[in-house]
Each structure stands twice: as structure tokens, then as C-alpha cells.
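Quick note —
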Amino acid sequence: MEVGKEPESNATSMRKTLLIINCIVLAIGNCAGPLMMRLYFIHGGKRVWFSSWLETGAWPIILLPISCAYFHRSRTQPGSQNKLFFMKPHLFLAAAVIGILTGLDDYLYAYGVARLPVSTSAIIIASQLAFTAGFAFVLVKQKFTSYSINAVFLLTIGAGVLAMRTSGDRPANESNREYVLGFLMTLGASALYGFILPLVELTYKKAKQEISYALVMEIQMVMCLFATGVCTIGMLVNGDFKVIPREAREYKLGETNYYVIVICSAIIWQCFFLGAIGVIFCASSLLSGILIAVLLPVTEILAVIFYNESFRAEKGVALALSLWGFLSYFYGEIKESKRNQPALQTEVASVSDRQTSQADGHRSSSGSSVECGLALKVEVLCGFVLSVGASKCISFVSVLPVMGFIGGALYMTVLSFSCS
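Predicted structure written out below.
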């Protein structure tokens, strides 16, 4: 029996390791991507279609891990039928459709970044979590726990705190019409990508073949290929290919730095997309959306460091709320996995063992109540600290302490029902 459990344990460990790697890759792409794109625009770049093309234009890089996986299979499984690509036609078609949507999303996002500061565009993108949660519930029947609901709520409140002080971020040389249009385009990009993430998860579930990580990389490559195709058509219509050499010569940081920024931007954005679908494969689209949202304050801090954007107290409160929501989600996942483990052991227990386990269950239930009570005390303390911090740091915004107490009260109410 222990022998049978060993492969399953190894597979679980491998999946967790893969999840961690994809989270790191997603973090790199999510934080550095907007900064690189904004760097292109603030120093003289003006081609929106070209900037959107860079988000997926580095798709040939994915051929490298796919080829490595192919040669690894050839050496370790010489007798099996080995192919470079495993994707079937219907899965290819689904990935192509998602890729076209991704190309449109790339343009909407690039247009917003061209008109808005990094801090403002990142704030708007945070609303993607709400869209992801809603579409995940509709498309893939995502199950919500009190902890995941709390994470969505806290991250949304964090974005709301930031959104209350964006009026002073409009560039001086930009008209109100351009600013509003950039805001709307970024919001559209947020909604569309909030739909794309659950759509990718639905594709995994509906695929009529086994989904391996090698196949996930193939799906990502096809998505980026078609997204790049959409942006290439836009560049041809807009005449970007003729203008790029002249734009590089007139770039404020120099022609060489122009091409360095362009290449680095393409590679970093590929990290974002590959990490996002990797997290969906290892966990869910909701977790992918939560990670993107929780990294929002990190992008804010990096924008302050590199672009000298203002860092007000509400950004610090948003950072605390985001970290709180992130920890809440993972605490719920750990608790859920521990709850599911005893179910496998009770199937082989005898009648006397079942009676013993029932007695242990009562003691475990008592311990669980103590744990829930402790969790409630911690949440009360965290809610109090965050609310007081908001009151001290941004007392001129009277609604923030109220929002902090409402958030803590809502979570404690939900948690008390789940622990009862």
C-alpha cells in the first residue's frame, strides 16, 4: 500500500514544485512587463500596435522547452511513441480562438498604458480579479470557500483604496478625452483577460486528451502565435513597420537602448503569459487572477522606485490588504488539503477503528473550534491594525477606516459560519 502511495506522492510534489516555478515566472512578467512597456512610451515610443505585438511576439522562445521535453522523452522512454507536438485539431482551434482574443486584449492594454501612468493602469487592472471570479463561477463552476471569498474581497478593497486618489496622476500634456479613453480601454482589457483566464481552464477541462505540462506549453505557443498575428495585421494597417527604424533613431535613450528595451519587453511578457497558464494548469484560473491582483502593489512600489511616481499612504494600506488576502487564500488551501487527507485512511479501517476514529473526530472537532477561535482573534487584530493604520495615514479620507472595519467584520462573519 505504501508502494502505491509513493508515485502519487511524487506526482503531488512535482505539481507543487511546478506551481511554485510558475508563480515566480508569473510574478516576474506581471511586475516587470508594465514597467518595460511604460519605459518604451515615456521616452519617445508612440506605436501602440507595436507595443501590443511585443506582448506575445516572443512566442518562438517556447519552442526551446518543448524541444527539450521531446529529447528528454526520447532518452527516458525509447520504446514509446514520441512526438514533438501532441495537440489535436480541436484543441488547436480552441487555442487559436483564445489567441485572437488575447491579441485584442493586448491592444486594449497597450493603449491604456500609453495614456496612463503605471500606478493608474495597475489600479484598473486589479478589477480583473472580480471579472475572473465571476467568469470562473459561470464557465468552470469554480467552488468558493470563505477564504477565497475573503481574498477576493480584500484585494478588491485594496484596489478601491488606490482608486480613491488617482485624480492627480493625469499627465500634464494629455487631454481629458485621451485620459478617459485610456481608462476605458484599460478597463476593457481587464474584463477581457478576466474572461480569457477561465476560458483557458475550460479548454483544459473540455480537452479530449490528457493535459500535460508539455501540452500546456503547446497551447501557450498557439495562443501567442495567433495573438501576434492579430497585432501584426494591426501594425501593417497602421504602417508601424515603416516607422520603427525612425522611431529608434529618435528615441531619447538612444537607438541601441531602444532595441534592448523592445527585446527585453517581449521576453518578459512571454514570462507573464507562460506563468499565467501554468498556474491555471497546476491550480485554477482564480488563483492566477489572485496572484495578478496581489502583485499590483509590488508594481506600484517599483514604479515609485524607477519612475519617481508618488507613493501615498493609501498604497501602503493597499499593499497590506493584498498580502492579507493572499495569505488568506493559501491558508484556506492548506486547511482544505489537510481536511481531505483523513478520508483516504478511513476506507480501510475496521469497525473498532472507525469507533476510535469517531472519538478522535470529536477531539479533532474540538481542536478545530479552538483553531477557528484563534483565527477569529487574529482577524480581529489584523482588521483593527489595518483600520487604525488607514485612519492615521489617510485621515483625510474618512471612508477608509469604515471600509477596513466592514472588511474585517464581513470576513469574521463568514469564517464564523464556516467554523461552526
